[in-house]
């Protein structure tokens, strides 16, 4: 892979940026990678493990002279970072981001940027429930989708950023910001909120002890706790900045849930059976699309067949 | 491991019974294993793969002369099977089951059994989203909990059944039927209903195509589809027969969900952040209890670090 950018700046050294640092280095995509995190401890850790070529003490220092500045901070912090770095941005530079919401990020970042600097919004659909500069690994994006929003940037800048993500192992798709936000509300944001809620309910229930919840949490619930262990700040910002789509999907979700709840209350076994039969088809589609394997696993990992489903 | 029963009958040759057949054979827990399934195709498959020592053409034939009869059928079919086998049961035999609900099974099975036959209800907390006689594997119960409900059986019968499950690799706990049903409503039944619902909503949404749902379903939603791919008949029966506890937990769930929904609508970031921070603790408890690993995986399996979380 040939070098695509002379200098890349990674702002916010969490799971995504630290994985990018490893992947960029592995594929030789940049001449130099500069990093910055608002947390001094994270900067210290990043220096210790040699995450980037240089770790700077301000976002502007990292962004100065960069051909590509990646904003890898929580969605709610994007606008402030853009204002910080705007005065030092190189003419013709590309600014991009890795936030989970796209419309709100575009609205916050674009007005802060100087003329001649292009913003292309981005969202790699990859991650784990772990965070911080030690959480990253080069293969995080391998075979995963990265959605990019062109936002009127020149074709050459779009092509270069797409090649950059492809170089890190991702498949690239282009999408409108609003459609991205709706799709992600369905496939990610609402499911996360539901998982958080269910884990909270379990914790609250006086008659079932926490140790029982922990001890007997196979399958379904264990997957929920994994989801619900994700970074609180990141997820707070996701829900606040993708409010409309999340509330719309939540409304549909509770409508459906009430219908199933009613079927349980009235003993309508046929309705339940029909519903559960239909949902099997989507799972098959996901396996056929190569987004998961048919191997029984239930989040246990380790590659054995000792899966964890239960009822 | 020494032989615990001369003849074990497995009624219903799905994932659980077929895994038991492998585990019993591997550990030498029974002199003979007889199997029966109501589906002629499943009986044929079981014969082809040599799942049991003998596959019978009726439940009564399988149960005849057995020291242990395991009912591994959907919860709603337990009572009818008990009636079928009652006339041939050996005096002193133990009947048990593997259903996901315990009160309803006890109420359905016990009245059908003759005097001198003991019913000890059971529930191994293990499974995958796959079903049928080919789905089983010997390690399914390894390190997982099996909850047993003594139901007044003699101590010797209880000890023997506990040794049987331990011999298949499980840890055994004894519990009251009603408490079991509440604990499982929290840790398994309600999470499954929620996952089914969310997958159904995604499928219904006209503006997001099924292919987009499939393509961009990393993390949260992919875990949901795995859960929602479980056997429809089994789950229909679970909800119909654990109605009260499920409806109670669903009520609490929607109450909490509405509170978070309101926080999103009003932009109360502090409430969201506090809630999401709290749910992280339960996840840590589950890892510390050895029910899962800290490795980032998100249901992808394969033992690599290429996990699939995203937002």
TrEMBL record, chains A, B:
Q: Which UniProt keywords apply?
A: Amino-acid biosynthesis, Aromatic amino acid biosynthesis, NAD, Oxidoreductase, Signal, Tyrosine biosynthesis
- Prephenate/arogenate dehydrogenase domain: from which residue to which, for each copy? 6-294
Q: Which SUPFAM superfamilies does the record cross-reference, listed alphabetically?
A: 6-phosphogluconate dehydrogenase C-terminal domain-like (SSF48179), NAD(P)-binding Rossmann-fold domains (SSF51735)
Q: Which Pfam families match?
A: PDH_C, PDH_N
Pathway the protein acts in: Amino-acid biosynthesis; L-tyrosine biosynthesis; (4-hydroxyphenyl)pyruvate from prephenate (NAD(+) route): step 1/1
Q: Which GO terms describe its biological process?
A: tyrosine biosynthetic process
Q: Which residues form the signal peptide?
A: 1-23
What's this protein's family per the entry? Answer: Belongs to the prephenate/arogenate dehydrogenase family.
Q: What is this protein called?
A: prephenate dehydrogenase
Q: Which organism is it from?
A: Pseudoroseicyclus aestuarii
